[in-house]
Design goal:
Elements: H1 2-22, E1 29-36, H2 40-52, E2 58-61, H3 66-70, H4 72-80, E3 84-87, H5 115-133, E4 140-141, E5 148-149, E6 152-153, E7 165-166, E8 186-187, H6 193-206, E9 209-214, E10 216-217, E11 224-225, H7 227-239, E12 244-247, H8 249-260
Parallel strand pairs: 1-2, 1-9, 1-12, 2-3, 4-7, 8-9, 10-11
Antiparallel strand pairs: 5-6
Helix pairs in contact: 6-7
Bound molecules: zinc ion.
Residues 36-37, 88, 92, 143 line the site of zinc ion.
C-alpha cells in the first residue's frame, strides 16, 4: 500500500512536470500580437477590437511620434488595461545604407549613428515609457529589423534591460529554441484571415508560440492588413481561448525564461 502511494505521487509529479514543460499556462500554444510604430489606428481601432475580444497586445512605441504626445493618456489607459507598451526606439532609426531604404532621412539613418547614440536613445525611450505606464519591465523591437550599427550588435548593451527583443524573421518560437536577442515574428502585409489563422494552427500543432507583427490595420500605414482579416484572427483566438494563450511579448518571454530554469 505504501509503495503504491509513493508510485502514485511520483506519477502525478512526473505528469505535472511534463504538462508544465510542454504547455503554455496549461494551454496548447501561445500567440503574441504586436503592433509597431505608435500610429493612430492602434488607439482608434486595434485596442478597441482587442478589448472587445478580451485579448491583450504589445504596442511598440516610437517616443518621438506625435501620436505619443497627443494621445498620451490613451496609451496610459491601454497599459493600465493590460496591453504592453514596448520600446521601438525614440526616433525609429533605420539603416539607410541598405537597398530599398529611400524613406530613411539623414536624421534617422542608423548607419550614421554611433552605437552610444543608438543605445542612449533606446534608454531614453524606456524612461518615457516608464513615465507613461509606470512599468519597469518591457520588450524591445528593432526598427526596420536592423540589428547593427556599422556592424556592431547594439542590443548587447541593452540585453539586461529588456525581457527580450522582437525581430522580423519568421518562425515558430519554443522555450527551447527562443533567441531572446531576436525573437521570431511573422510580418503581416496584405495576407488574408486564413493565412493568419494557419500560423496559429502551426503553433497549435507544434506546441509553440507564434508572434504576429502588424503595422496598419484597415489602414493607417503603408504596411497593412485588412480590418476583416484582423478580426477573423481575433475571433479565432477568442473562440480557442481554452487551448490558445494570447498574451503580451513581455509575459511570453518571461514565461519561457521561467520554464527553462
Ligand atoms: Zn517600425
Amino acid at each position: 500500500m505504501k509503495y503504491l502511494f509513493i508510485t502514485c505521487i511520483a506519477a502525478i509529479l512526473c505528469l505535472t512536470g511534463f504538462a508544465q514543460q510542454g504547455s503554455w499556462k496549461g494551454k496548447q500554444c501561445a500567440v503574441v500580437l504586436t503592433y509597431d510604430d505608435a500610429i493612430d489606428i492602434d488607439l482608434d481601432h486595434v485596442i478597441p477590437a482587442l478589448d472587445s475580444f478580451q485579448l491583450k497586445g504589445t504596442f511598440y512605441l516610437i517616443g518621438a511620434s506625435p501620436v505619443i504626445d497627443k494621445r498620451l493618456h490613451e496609451w496610459r489607459s491601454a497599459a493600465a488595461n493590460g496591453h504592453e507598451l514596448g520600446n521601438h526606439a525614440l526616433m525609429h532609426p533605420c539603416d539607410g545604407s541598405k537597398p530599398g531604404r529611400g524613406f530613411v532621412t539623414p536624421e534617422n539613418d542608423l548607419s550614421k549613428y554611433s552605437v552610444a547614440r543608438a543605445v542612449t536613445e533606446i534608454r531614453q525611450n524606456n524612461v518615457l515609457l516608464k513615465a507613461i505606464d509606470g512599468k519597469e519591465r518591457r520588450t524591445f523591437a528593432y526598427p526596420c529589423g536592423d540589428l547593427t550599427v556599422n556592424g556592431v550588435f547594439f542590443y548587447e548593451q541593452l540585453r539586461n534591460e529588456f525581457a527580450c527583443a522582437r525581430g522580423v524573421a519568421g518562425g515558430i518560437v519554443t522555450p527551447q529554441n527562443a533567441n531572446y536577442d531576436n525573437i521570431n515574428s511573422y510580418v503581416v502585409n496584405g495576407q488574408d484571415g486564413n493565412y493568419l489563422i494557419s500560423l496559429v494552427k502551426q503553433a497549435e500543432q507544434s506546441g509553440g508560440l507564434v508572434v504576429f507583427l502588424f503595422h496598419g490595420v484597415g489602414g493607417g500605414h503603408n504596411i497593412n492588413v485588412s480590418s476583416g482579416a484582423h478580426t477573423e484572427l481575433l475571433r479565432y483566438l477568442a473562440a480557442g481561448k481554452d487551448k490558445i494563450w494570447v498574451t503580451t511579448m513581455v509575459d511570453a518571454a518571461d514565461y519561457m525564461r521561467e520554464l527553462k530554469r
